[in-house]
Amino acid sequence: MATYRTQIQWGGADAAWHDDADLVIVVQSRNAVIPDKARPATGTQLSWSGPQGNATITFFDDGARFQGSAQFPGEGPVGFRGTAR
């Protein structure tokens, strides 16, 4: 399980970042994509879509951070980034 402190950004590339809810991730199948007790590898990409919103993110620095975009119900798309806790 990887837990990230997240921030969102709206209003363009130079706009301020705003704290958002933590993101907790575990993805396992035949192999652990995002292991139960570790972070994802650099370059790992993750996308999801559902009633609670959608996002596409890419992990960097041995999973210490991610960057991407997200869209939550009733809102426009935003920049989305996170730092491992």
Number-wise, the strands total: 9
Distance between the termini: 11 Å
How are helices and strands ordered from N to C? EEEEEEEEE
Q: How much β-strand is present in the residues?
A: over 45%
- The count of helical stretches stands at 0
The major β-sheet equals: 7 strands, antiparallel
Which range best describes the helical content: under 10%, 10-25%, 25-40%, 40-55%, 55-70% or over 70%?
A: under 10%
Report a brief summary of the structure.
This protein is mainly beta and 85 residues long. It has strands at residues 2-9, 17-19, 23-25, 27-28, 32-34, 45-50, 53-60, 65-71, 78-84.
How is this structure best described in words?
The protein is mainly β and 85 residues long. It has one domain (2-11, 19-84). The chain contains no helices and nine strands. The protein has strands at 2-9, 17-19, 23-25, 27-28, 32-34, 45-50, 53-60, 65-71, 78-84. The strands form two sheets. Strands 1, 2, 3, 6, 7, 8 and 9 form a seven-stranded antiparallel β-sheet that branches. A two-stranded antiparallel ribbon has the order 4-5. Strand 7 (53-60) and strand 8 (65-71) form a beta hairpin. The chain is globular and about 40 Å long. The mean pLDDT is 93.
Sum up the structure in keywords:
mainly beta, seven-stranded antiparallel sheet, two-stranded antiparallel sheet, single chain, 0% helix, 85 residues
Set down the secondary structure blueprint.
Layout: E1 2-9, E2 17-19, E3 23-25, E4 27-28, E5 32-34, E6 45-50, E7 53-60, E8 65-71, E9 78-84
Antiparallel strand pairs: 1-2, 1-3, 1-9, 4-5, 6-7, 7-8, 8-9
